[in-house]
Amino acid sequence: MPDELQVLGRAVKQAQYKQHRALDSRLGAAGTTLAQWDALRAISRAPGAPARALAAATFQSEQAFGTLAGRLAALCLIDRRPGRGRRIEHYLTPSGEEVLSTGHRIADEVLTSCYSPLSPAERTTLLDLLQRIGDGAGAPADR
Q1: What is the block-wise mean pLDDT of the chain (143 residues), using blocks of 10 residues?
Q2: Quick check: 13 and 21 in contact, CB under 8 A?
Q3: Please, are residues 105 and 26 in contact by the beta-carbon 8 Å criterion?
Q4: Rounded to two decimals, what is the model's pTM?
């Protein structure tokens, strides 16, 4: 059983790696990176959010997200504005909205290709299973 779980873990990682490489390559041709597009997507979903929330949403440390946000601001893709206290709020600029929209089209194409071997029912099942794992149902507590 442990070997089987390791094979499963590696298969999940391999699928993710293939997906990320394809996305990063295609997004690069459009003038952005997967990390940048993912940050724009997170900001779009939560305009005005602080770096802490956006870092968590993009699976980054606060420091890494702060560096990325600085680059996005320098590219005029986001605005960083003072919020309450020491909080810095993040918003997309019109240019950021355009890059995000282009990224959505590219992601749709890439993901359609990545998941084409699966039927719609299989994709639904895969999503349900991965969400169950991601939600931590039945997972041991972090040690």
Answers
A1: 89 95 94 96 97 96 96 97 91 97 96 96 96 74 46
A2: no
A3: no
A4: 0.85
